[in-house]
Amino acid sequence: MAVGIIILILLFRNVNLNEAYDLLSKINLPLLASSIIFFILSSLAMGFALQGALRATNAAPPISTTQLANFGGQLLSDVTPAKSGYFATPVLLNQLNNVPIEKGLISVMSVGALNFFVKAGFSIIALFHFIDRISINPAMTYALLVGIALLLAGGTALAILVWTNHLSNLFKKLDNLPLLGRVVKRLNSIRILFANDQTALRKSTKTIVTSIVASIIFSGISLYLVANALNLNQPAFQDLFFMGPLTAVFMYVPVTFAGLGLQEAAYAFLLTSIGAPIESALTFALIVRLIATATDLIGLPPLLTAGTRLLYNFKEENNSARNPQQGDSQKSTSEAN
User: Fold this and answer.
1) Per-residue pLDDT averaged across 19-35, rounded?
2) What number is the average pLDDT over the span 238-251?
3) Mean pLDDT of the chain
4) What sign does the CA torsion over 56, 59, 61, 65 have?
5) Rounded to an integer, what distance in angstroms lies between the CA atom of residue 47 and that of residue 64?
6) DSSP conformational letter for 15
7) 67 Cβ contact partners less than 8 Å away, ≥ 6 residues apart
8) What 3-state class would DSSP assign to 257?
9) Where are the alpha helices (DSSP H) in the chain?
């Protein structure tokens, strides 16, 4: 968090704050509201991708539950390094609709793998698009390549876990180890479920990829509307469309929370290279960050609900552990009734 704030402070050192304030005062509110709608549609598309994976494992809850859990996971990802908080989504699904943790986990991992691959592919195309249009200095090029490499590495790792037998074979080898073997044996249920759902998840690939591409398209439209709301006419639609996935690679760099500061710097560099004033570029980047986080607040109620249930269950387990006789008595009374 501190690193991201420091980067933002450094970015704003050369900004005329009066001009930035003037931009905000003249912002086109109807266009801004339209951009928010498309941000939400982008998130909903990712929820449909998750629903497709859950349906393949025969564990799909109502779509409304999946969407709420998806927003909750996205909200956590906004405040964690490399957006890792999204991996809490299986817990939300479990608490909101009793979706087995293992089913939720393999579904999230499957969507995550394809999301990494699709965004890496779009980012590579975007890099060629901007190299052809502007002169990108070597440092920025290397930074973008590192980000793309992280996406490819993350996608490959998740794909190996979800769609191959490497995880199952590794668990079998670790079973016989003196200490680690005990822990591994407790994970056998996960191993079995992963093995059973591999084929089904492969069949859901088309649905997941289509949803992810739709999410990128909705996001691109939203960026275009934000730019027009700020009267930022320099970038064309295709520039902003490719700018989305290309700057998103920095969100997965585990240095700041969801790439805070890094993504804004990438937006500022690309937009100013096209011809936008630095004040407009940074104002645009901050509004995009604000809208993305604000729309993810849809996930706050399910987060609070799931957290409350987890806390209640934890207290109940503690009470049962401290007073086993009382717990048995209550159980016998309930059975008698």
Assistant:
1) 91
2) 90
3) 84
4) negative
5) 9
6) -
7) 44, 47, 51
8) strand
9) 2-11, 17-25, 29-56, 63-77, 89-97, 101-133, 138-163, 166-174, 180-186, 188-203, 205-229, 237-248, 262-274, 278-296, 300-322, 324-336
Pair of tokens at residue 190: 């996960």
Tokens in use for 196?
Answer: 């059973």
Instruction: Give CA–CA dist 137/132, Å, rounded.
Output: 13
280: Cβ–Cβ under 8 A, 6 or more apart, which residues?
23, 230, 232, 271
The answer to whether the beta carbons of residues 299 and 75 sit under 8 Å apart is yes
Which pair of tokens denotes residue 292?
């993305």
Give the pLDDT confidence of 257-279 residue by residue, as tens digits. Answer: 888 888 898 898 899 888 888 89
Q: Which amino acid is at 74?
A: Q
Amino acid at 334: S
Q: What is the per-residue pLDDT across 84-118, written as a single tens digit (0 to 9) for each? A: 889 899 999 999 999 988 889 889 988 998 999 99
Token pair belonging to 191:
């191993």
Tell me the pTM. Answer: 0.83
Instruction: From 3, 104, 14, 21, select the one nearest 58 (Cα to Cα).
Output: 104
Q: Which residues contact 66 (CB under 8 A, 6 or more apart)?
A: 47, 50, 51, 54, 60, 93
